[in-house]
Specification:
This protein has 392 residues and is α/β, with parallel strands linked by helices. It has two domains: 22-147 and 346-390, Nucleotidyltransferase, domain 5 (2-Layer Sandwich); 159-343, ATPase, nucleotide binding domain (Nucleotidyltransferase, domain 5, 2-Layer Sandwich), CATH 3.30.420. Helices cover 37% and strands 20% of the residues. Strands 9-8-7-6-10-11 form a six-stranded mixed β-sheet, with helices on both faces. The chain has a five-stranded mixed β-sheet with strand order 3-2-1-4-5, with helices on both faces. The radius of gyration is 22 Å and the shape is globular. Bound molecules: adenosine monophosphate and zinc ion (ZN). Its EC number is 2.3.1.234.
């Protein structure tokens, strides 16, 4: 049911005949990436015209500072839009899409308010998009909406989220497993920082380190005792949930016990091995729980693992090649994998534009301009929010 509250008002909009094709401008600003794109939507196909992202560099501060992220978007979103329209000889578009939530409020509002302004100025509809819907629908842009086919399962692994979602339709999503503490990307970043790695995307730096191809150094500890959290301890048998917080304690303990609290200063070969083991332990935990949650969904007849089933892995961490291999190796052979190109795994405007197009065309929805951003917005409650407007 659509939640149209009193303060939202329907406006007469979209005299244009959208069935003949239309241009879309999309803005993503939920975290620290200001991202803008233009899409040319024609009947039966969609073409990305242009895409640009300006990321906040937080490498010196050791984490994203929300106020810095907001300021970053305020300084970048509008100029990116202006530059992109000029570059492509466009004065206006027919549909504006922007991330409404979930995410950091300051960041979200900086992009969303630009989108509202453009919608008013051009008198065109706006779609307020759910960020995670964008991640899970991404492969449908590249397959021209043919795959993944509903029902499909998505593993969304990023700096802010870790969840396994079963999607039965554009507005019908069920969370099969979620994290009980922090997100996997956040934990990979914390572990990499503890190891003395530097950069803006520390999970990516950790992956690069593990690919250095050196041998295990002589005398390297046999067992670093990395955990597999929530794994059949008393009272926690078969919990379909992830937990990543224990990994940083384990890294600190191993650093103290084996490396004299000088993990950041150990020789390169030892660091490579340490990195492989901690990344491997985190991915092992993730995969164990994905398998458990999928088996449970199979037992409930929510999915059928004996038949082909589409499986999407998206979000920044999904660009990790070791994780992709681990998933393929550990999960049922009936799965058909959709791994977006790493560029489209991390936050981007294309996924917001495409999810906006699907909401507009399939669900026939757009968003009233009185809509506010939502820091928390569960994926299984997409419609359970005010200010949706139905075109029917
Ligand atoms: P997102 O929140 O989707 O923009 O993704 C950002 C998160 O993904 C950060 O925690 C990154 O460290 C992590 N990340 C990006 N690339 C990789 C990679 N190749 N391997 C592991 N983690 C990654
Ligand atoms: Zn994301």
């Amino acid at each position: 049911m659509l939640a149209l509250v009193g303060r939202c008002c329907r406006r007469r909009l979209h005299p244009k005949n959208y069935s003949k094709g239309y241009h879309v401008l999309a803005i993503e600003s939920s975290c620290d990436d200001s991202s803008v794109c233009l899409i040319d939507r024609q009947p039966g196909k969609a073409k990305l015209i242009d895409h640009e992202t300006e990321s906040l560099d937080s490498s010196a501060v050791g984490g994203i500072v929300p106020t810095d992220a907001k300021t970053h978007h305020q300084g970048h979103v509008a100029p990116l839009v202006q530059k992109m329209l000029h570059r492509n000889g466009l004065q206006k578009v027919d549909l504006v899409c922007a991330t409404r939530g979930p995410g950091m409020m300051g960041s979200l509002s900086a992009g969303f308010n630009v989108a509202k302004g453009l919608s008013v100025a051009w008198n065109v509809p706006m779609v307020g998009v759910h960020h995670m819907l964008g991640h899970l629908l991404t492969p449908r842009f590249f397959s021209n909406r043919t795959s993944p086919e509903y029902p499909f399962v998505s593993l969304l692994v990023s700096g802010g989220h870790t969840m396994l979602v079963l999607s039965k339709g554009i507005l019908d999503h069920q969370v099969l497993a979620n994290t009980v503490d922090i997100a996997i990307g956040d934990m990979l970043d914390k572990c990499a920082r503890e190891m003395g790695l530097k950069g803006n995307m520390l999970g990516k730096e950790l992956e690069r380190l593990t690919q250095s191809g050196v041998k295990i150094p002589a005398g390297f500890p046999e067992d670093l005792q990395f955990p597999n959290p929530l794994y059949n301890q008393q009272g926690r048998v078969n919990v379909p949930a992830f937990s990543f917080a224990p990994f940083i304690s384990a890294v600190k303990r191993a650093s103290k016990v084996h490396f004299n609290d000088q993990l950041d200063k150990i020789p390169h070969e030892a660091k490579v091995e340490f990195g492989k083991q901690i990344q491997g332990a985190i991915f092992h935990h993730l995969t164990t729980k994905v398998l458990l949650a999928m088996n449970q969904a199979h037992s409930r007849n929510d999915i059928d693992l004996e038949k082909p089933l589409d499986f999407v892995a998206s979000g920044g961490v999904a660009s990790n090649q070791t994780l992709r291999r681990t998933l393929k190796h550990s999960l049922p052979k009936t799965l058909r994998y959709h791994f977006p190109d790493p560029k489209w795994c991390t936050d981007n405007a294309l996924m917001i534009g495409w999810a906006g197009i699907e909401l507009w065309e399939q669900a026939r929805l757009h968003t009233d301009l009185a809509a506010l951003n939502k820091a928390k917005w569960p994926i299984d409650q997409i419609l359970n929010l005010d200010c949706w407007i139905s075109r029917d």
